[in-house]
Amino acid sequence: MKNIFLFYLVTSSFILLNFNQTITAQTLQEYKEIKGKIIDESSKNVLIFADILIKDTNISTITNSDGMFVLKVPDSLVNKSFVISHLGYQKKEIKISTFENNSKIELTPVITELKEIEVKSFKDPETLLKLTLKKRSSIYNNDKTLMTAFYRETIKKRNKSASLSEAILQIHKQPYGNSRHDDIDLIKSRKSTDYKRLDTIAVKLQGGPFSNLYTDIIKYPEFIFSSEDLLLYDFKFDKSTRINDNMVYAISFKQKREIVEPLFYGKLYIDSETLALINAVFSLNVENRELASKMYIRKKPRRVDVYPTEATYRVNYRNQNGKWQYAYSNILLTFKVNWKGKLFNSVYTLNSEMAITDWEIKDSELTRKREQIIKPTTILTDEASGFSDPEFWGEYNIIEPEKSIESAIEKIKKQLKRSETNLQISA
Q1: pLDDT digit string (tens) for 16-62?
Q2: I want to staple 8 with a disulfide (CB 3.0 to 4.6 A). Which of 4, 189, 204, 307 is the partner?
Q3: Each residue of 286-300: pLDDT tens digit?
């Protein structure tokens, strides 16, 4: 099993970045912004990771941890509808022109009768998973695809945001049927880091967007379900569910008891009709602190012990034109930092998420600028510089920030205004 998530811990002193950097907003065409909140019809609970797609297009987004979404629709598409779908619910279609912003949209839970789904045709859940992995070139998009993606990574100390980075990316997605790795271009980015809040520790995520891209289990099975790794897990069928009108198999998995190396545990959701993996939620077993730490920590001070207390991954796929493909992934990592000789420890939470917001088939290689290319070893906070208001993104779709991140952004904007005022006074 290979690592798909690495970060650095280094002792250092930093100078706060300059927030006065001017960034021009994108103004390609006029658009309408729609925003709302997705909730469960029965419980009224918010629905996280609901998929929102403009019908008959590839433009999409996803709800955040507050169930909120924002979607920028080109004026040429305002007469279309947008479709909301979520695992375990009936999809809902709404006309864009009649939608009132900030409305609550209720999704109806679907009732699943276990007798409706037949698993007898499969000897065991492992056989089903192997068939899913084997069919990737036929049921997943097997064309070269240029994807536009929004990426965000945050670092929190305790519950307070210490670092925030965002980027618009272009992913050169290789066909699922070949073994070539995907490439990523950095189109736009911004960051803010409060190094005072980080004290003498600076946490840096190596790989950034690539870490999220590698959670695509179908494209990169070697990171979790290589042919050798499959032998290390126990699989079993779990309670089935639905997405829209389709039945979905649920498979739970965990490492065998005799295996010492930290492996993953979680659930896989497989469409019963196409046998495509449509959703996966899994975590690393971090009970063995020493071994789990070695999997994640690339560099740290000698006097510091660092170990993860949680490492959770999520990947969603979307069906478009009869083919499935990567749509969204989220990584959540919590770890403790213990300084030798000090009584108290620090708790850091690192979260990264990436959503595909548009895509098109591109069979030919694109001409790419060297400064845009991201390597798997890239640290986004080293590449990005400065922060600006939301207009920075222009027409690009982004994931609506959760309340805590939105609060951090507001503080950044206030600091920007103070900096501008001080500059005017000094002039």
Answers
A1: 222 223 333 334 458 899 999 999 999 999 999 999 999 999 999 99
A2: 204
A3: 999 989 888 888 777
The whole-angstrom separation of Cα 225 and Cα 138 is 19
Structure tokens at 167: 């980027």
CB-based contact 126:225 (threshold 8 Å): no
Residues 90 and 121 in one domain: no
In this prediction the pTM is: 0.86
For residue 300, give both structure tokens: 């740290």
- Residue 16: inside a domain, yes or no? no
Specify which residues 244 forms β-bridges with. Answer: none
Q: For residue 249, which of 267, 233, 262, 266 has the smallest C-alpha distance?
A: 267
Q: How far is CA 143 from CA 140, 147, 173, 321, in A?
A: 9, 12, 8, 13
CATH of the domain at 65: 2.60.40.1120
Give the DSSP H/E element, type plus range, for residue 129.
Answer: helix 125-134
Backbone angles phi, psi at 139, to 5 degrees: -105, -10
Domain count, the chain: 2
Whether 406 and 3 have beta carbons less than 8 Å apart is answered as no
Q: Which domain holds residue 64?
A: 25-109
Q: Residue 106's closest CA among 92, 87, 95, 119?
A: 92
